[in-house]
Specification:
The structure holds three protein chains of three kinds. By secondary structure, chain A is an alpha/beta fold. Chain A is about 45% helix and about 10% strand. In chain A, the strands form two sheets. A five-stranded mixed beta sheet of chain A has the order 6-5-9-7-8, covered by helices on one side. A four-stranded parallel beta sheet of chain A has the order 3-2-1-4, with helices on both faces. The longest helix of chain A has 18 residues. Chain B is built from 15 helices and 22 strands. In chain B, the strands form six sheets. In chain B, strands 15-14-20-19-18-16-17 form a seven-stranded mixed beta sheet, covered by helices on one side. In chain B, strands 2-1-5-3-4 form a five-stranded mixed beta sheet, with helices on both faces. In chain B, a hairpin with a 2-residue loop joins strand 14 and strand 15. By secondary structure, chain C is α+β, with helices and mostly antiparallel strands. Chain C is elongated. The chains are: A alpha/beta, B alpha+beta, C alpha+beta. At the A-B interface, helix 14 and helix 15 of A face helix 2 of B.
Chain lengths: ~425, ~525, ~160
């Protein structure tokens, strides 16, 4: 089979790649030099828009369009927040970019900031990535030393500082408005929208929030053009994606593949199929928040629109593979426990609904399930979905609904054999 | 102006108005917990969900801004089902405390549960167990099981008093309201938290377990504890006999007046007034005869005073009568007092004897501890407190309104000055010990128990009617003055009509331009 | 009664605060700093931080109790956080946690009597490709089995 193009991860395994000398030696910061010397901010912005770069954090929203929401002619400072919270279970790709190729990210940050007119960029990195944060800070120091950050970058008159800001253990801070709250030194309580962060964001100023991998794609787009990017993937979802594969596969890890690669191919070709000859039961395609797919549904193409059409979400591309000998209740327990633990507690349906779901699932797991519990779970999830202040409610509800619907027989069978009492 | 449709009816509101406010204008109150007009929208309770044509998801009424031609539905099956879902979630972890909860009868969770048909719980799990009696302030108890995390209390202390005593700790279902060690709610406005809490999570220890809201009647009055004149509700039990030790007025609550106090009152007014209402009251007139205090029937006591005053008038010595009024009297009472004693009776001295000013704060509580200082000034009373010498010189009959003279002078000085006055009468709602120096004491009503009006510091004339009923032998000062005029035989055709506050107010409006618009 | 902040700590805090247009934004990095130097953040530390960053002390408590990484009570020299999320569960995470509980003689949430180890559960660490995994202080360890656990514990003196 032809090797898939490795545009982001090509040099990941090089020793000392994270050092600036190694990065520059293989063409790093060339895109930035080109942009600052020969392109206006609008031209950089247009190229990214033409490329149709879709967000790689989970929502898949086109980055160029998002950048365009920043009001023109505002006299408030504009900020860029890099979402390096990577809390979605099953997701670990940004960790590699941050630790193996931090300059790729830095170059992307500077290009994006140039395009939009950003004054300062904050990288919100999850607290557990302490070691990686230190490496990123080293890289930022190197970049500043080489004139790629700071004042009058490469003589362009454009200034930018990047600040690394650590989180402290809250999945909700991966949600963009909760990230802003946390960056401002508060509890990670998501904000009401509207107003949207592009208008009222960090410190009440216009703010762009982009995922690490999203920004890591910008240097390539500027160096090689929008057309190149689109060619790598699909017309509506260009470029490559770094898929993370974990669970019952022989070779868990990151796999950079074109958008639109089929899930089956990712699992059975690239990740070398099921571990120890086990049989496939189900796959969660895009991080825990995406609805589960049954074994017969894995021919879906892994691009934003195709997975949505299949009733799930490409999300963060965190593929979790579940083998047949895994009781689905085990999966449901982990799902229920996670969202109950991570709910910020601000709004009624999520605060109380995730806890109710967890309590019901735990009771089922303890052998005290009752007839109607599966329907109860579906009803609870339906009362959360679409009713909450932020998308965590949907993220909590949709997986439960999918598991309850697609594996009803197994769940209800489990109740019967566990000696359920009314 | 924006025109939109709420449940089919057209409503016109200024740009920037929320759907919630527009609905209110159209006569619809969207169900809500976290929303409060004094704060920015919070959007966390999720109860005010409404349907907007063209929007796939339900939207919040409290934070959605109206657009031209917007079509809002507030009662569709989908909306009702969504609200039911929210209530069901709240009830899942809410204790069934209604039988022991003070809020029962005025609890929004109760009301909405009834409105949305939630009568049986479907929650089969174990409820979270939490502390039910956390002392978060001198008079405040927090029940964490009842708390629905609306955060109104936290936001009040952040945005209004800016004292930040309460915060939200932990997260998810374990989120709880709390204080820091050694940091209870203490800012002079703590009682407002009880009103704000939509359920019985924050309760008032002054009111706890004393009665039920459905036993209470509600009267509208004005707080007399400073000259801001915050509007209040007086909650009382009609027909509740005020026997010693029993309370008749159970609580004072704010009455929203955007121009005066908004939706708040201070703790001094709230707790001070309910205490003043019920404690240390003088219940019936008495007269000191030869060292013995004899309780008298109302008419008897009036007759004695009337005789003494008429005796002086007949002897041409009306100028030997001194009257010490107080700015605790209403505009009508002060007017009547002046008319009787200055214009018709010819008393020698009419002064104001008011309490000492206290500490004001930068919010509602003002230093002047009377409700009607401005009114007294506009009625021509000299605000300068009198000297004892001036008051006592040549005085044979002294009529004191209010016991405040005892706050202004040392006890022995006062005693000495009063000894030289033959007849001393005190008209007061409260027994303060001053009665020992008096010959007669008339039990008078508190502002909550009479009709009248006060003029606040801004010159705002605020009329009020009696909210609570006093004991049978307690009379308003207006009734006392009217009865005196009658017993002195002063201009019956004039004073004969002036037996109600409304009638006096009409005269007042005619006589003094400042009060021109009052009637 | 914890000691007051040293001048060095104070200037590090002020340096952190200076990276933002509003001082309060430095709260999370400052709490990490204080915790790294003192092992935990006490109530007095909260008040000191609040003073330096210009916020009501209760705001610091709100943040301390919201985020799982901040500690108000001491932990062992090695804080072992074992992942309890899905990919690790699929790779035997529950058994791993049980093994650690047995080896250390404490339940999840407990600290060994000699103060060497605290064992807690943690949500997805972003290392699912090396499941089952855990974090010791800030170091990640994955692809664990009983033998590797024994080796790891042995190396943590």
């Amino acid at each position: 089979m032809t090797k898939a193009p490795q545009v982001l991860t090509e040099f990941f395994w090089l020793e000392q790649l994270h050092r600036i000398e190694a990065y520059v030696a293989r063409g790093g910061y060339a895109a930035l030099k080109k942009a600052l010397a020969a392109m206006t901010p609008d031209q950089v912005h247009d190229e990214v828009k033409k490329a149709g770069l879709r967000g790689r954090g989970g929502a898949g929203f086109p980055a160029g369009v998002k950048w365009g929401f920043i009001p023109k002619g505002t006299d408030k400072p504009k900020y860029l927040c890099v979402n390096a919270d990577e809390g979605e279970p099953g997701t670990f790709k940004d960790k590699y970019i941050l630790s193996h190729d931090p300059h790729l990210l830095i170059e992307g940050i500077v290009l994006a900031s140039y395009a939009v007119g950003i004054q300062a960029a904050y990288v919100y990195i999850r607290g557990e990535y302490e070691m990686i944060a230190r490496r990123l800070e080293q890289a930022i120091d190197e970049a500043r030393g080489a004139g790629f950050l700071g004042r009058n970058i490469l003589g362009s008159g454009f200034d930018l500082e990047i600040v690394v800001h650590r989180g402290a253990g809250a999945y909700i801070c991966g949600e963009e408005t909760a990230l802003l709250e946390s960056l401002e030194g508060k509890r990670g309580n998501p904000r009401l929208k509207p107003p949207f962060p592009a208008v009222v964001g960090l410190f009440q100023c216009p703010t762009v929030i982009n995922n690490v991998e999203t920004l890591a794609n910008v240097p390539g787009i500027i160096r090689n053009g929008a057309g190149w990017f689109l060619e790598l993937g699909l017309p509506k979802d260009g470029g490559t994606r770094i898929f993370g594969v974990s669970g019952a596969v022989a070779k868990p890890g990151i796999y950079e593949l074109p958008s639109g690669t089929s899930l089956r191919e990712i699992i059975f070709t690239y990740a070398s199929g099921m571990k120890d000859g086990r049989k496939l039961k189900a796959v969660i395609p895009g991080g825990m928040s995406s609805p589960i797919l049954k074994a017969e549904e894995i021919d879906v193409r892994m691009d934003v629109d195709s997975v949505a059409a299949a009733g799930s979400m490409l999300g963060s591309g965190g593929i979790i593979v579940i083998a047949e000998d895994t009781p689905i209740l085990q999966v449901l327990r982990r799902v229920a426990a996670f969202y109950a633990h991570e709910s910020c507690g601000q709004c009624t349906p999520c605060r109380l609904g995730t806890s109710w779901i967890r309590k019901t699932v735990e009771r089922m797991a303890a052998g005290r399930g009752q007839a109607g519990d599966v329907d109860a779970l579906i009803r609870l999830a339906a009362n959360i979905q679409g009713r909450t202040l932020c998308p965590l409610g949907d993220a909590a509800a949709m997986p439960v609904t999918a598991i309850a619907r697609k594996f009803r027989a197994e769940l209800e069978g489990g109740l019967a054999t566990a000696g359920a009492r009314p | 102006m924006i025109k939109l449709f709420i449940d089919g009816a057209a409503v016109e509101v200024p740009e920037g108005t929320t759907v919630f406010k527009a609905a209110e204008q159209g006569g619809i109150e969207l169900p809500h917990f976290c929303f409060h007009p004094a704060f920015a929208p919070e959007g966390s309770c999720r109860l005010c969900l409404i349907q907007i044509e063209g929007s796939p998801k339900l939207e919040l009424g409290c934070s959605t801004i109206v657009r031209e031609g917007m079509k809002v539905v507030t009662q569709s099956p989908a909306v009702r089902e969504a609200r039911r879902g929210v209530l069901e979630f709240l009830l899942a972890e809410h204790p069934l405390d209604c039988p022991i909860c003070d809020k029962a009868g005025e609890c929004k969770l109760q009301d909405y549960s009834r409105d949305y048909g939630l009568t049986e719980s479907v929650f089969r799990e174990f409820k979270e167990k939490r502390d039910k009696k956390v002392a978060i302030g001198e008079k405040l108890l927090l029940d964490r099981e009842r708390c629905i995390q609306c955060t109104r209390c936290v936001r009040f202390l952040a945005e209004i008093t800016k004292s930040h005593e309460l915060g939200v700790f932990e997260r998810g279902v374990h989120a709880e309201i709390g204080i820091l060690e050694g940091g209870p709610v203490r800012n002079g406005y703590s009682g407002n938290l009880v009103d704000l809490c939509p359920v019985g999570a924050i309760t008032d220890t002054d009111f706890r377990f004393k009665t039920r809201p459905w036993f209470l009647s509600r009267g509208e009055s004005v707080c007399p504890h400073c000259d801001r004149g915050c509007n209040i509700y007086v909650d009382y039990q009609p027909g509740f006999p005020r026997v010693p030790g029993s309370a008749k007025v159970f609580r004072i609550r704010p009455r929203t007046n955007e121009a005066v106090n908004g939706p708040w009152i201070c703790d001094a007014g709230r707790y001070g007034y309910v205490r003043a209402q019920n404690e240390g009251r003088s219940d019936r007139p008495f007269w000191n005869k030869d060292g013995a205090k004899t309780e008298l029937a109302w008419d008897t006591a009036m007759a004695i005073l009337g005789d003494k005053l008429r005796a002086l008038a007949d002897a041409g010595r009306s100028d030997r009568v001194a009257v010490a009024a107080t700015s605790w009297l209403t505009n009508e009472e002060l007017f009547l007092l002046k008319k009787i004693f200055r214009d018709d009776f010819g008393a020698g001295r009419i002064v104001l004897c008011d309490p000492q000013p206290g500490e004001g704060d930068d919010f509602l509580h003002r230093p002047d501890r009377t409700p009607n200082a401005r009114g007294a000034r506009e009625l021509g009373f000299d605000p300068a407190p009198p000297t004892l010498e001036a008051l006592a010189r040549g005085t044979e009959v002294l009529i004191l309104f209010g016991p405040h003279i005892a706050e202004r002078f040392a006890a022995d000085e006062l005693c000495a000055a009063l000894r030289g006055i033959a007849v001393k009468v005190l008209v007061t709602p409260h027994l303060t010990g001053l009665e020992g120096l008096m010959d007669g004491v008339f039990a008078s009503a508190t502002p909550a128990e009479k009709d009248g009006s006060f003029t606040n510091f801004e010159g705002r004339i605020q009329p009020f009617v009696a909210a609570a009923r006093p004991c049978p032998d307690v009379r308003s000062e207006l009734a006392i003055l009217a009865a005196l005029a009658g017993s002195l035989g002063l201009r019956p055709d004039y004073y004969g009509r002036l037996t109600t506050a409304a009638a006096v107010r009409r005269e007042l409006a005619k006589d003094i331009p400042f009060f021109g618009g009052a009637a | 009664m914890s000691a007051a902040f040293s001048p060095e700590l104070v200037s590090k805090i002020e340096a952190l605060a200076g990276r933002y247009p509003a001082k309060g934004a430095a709260l999370l990095p400052v709490l990490h700093l204080v915790q790294s130097e003192r092992g935990l953040v006490s109530a007095e530390d909260e008040r000191a931080v609040a003073g330096l960053l210009g916020m009501p002390p209760i705001k610091v408590r709100e943040v301390m109790t919201f985020y799982t990484m901040f500690r108000r009570s001491p932990v062992g020299r090695y804080h072992i956080q074992v992942c309890t999320n899905l990919s690790c569960s699929l790779a035997g995470g529950e058994a791993l946690a049980a093994y650690l509980e047995a080896k250390l003689g404490v339940k999840l949430g407990g600290t060994t009597p000699d103060g060497r180890f605290t064992l807690t559960g943690v949500e997805c660490l972003g290392a699912c490709e090396t499941a089952p995994c855990l974090m010791v202080n800030f170091d990640y360890y994955g692809n664990l089995d009983a033998a590797r656990i024994d080796e790891l514990l042995g190396s943590l003196t």
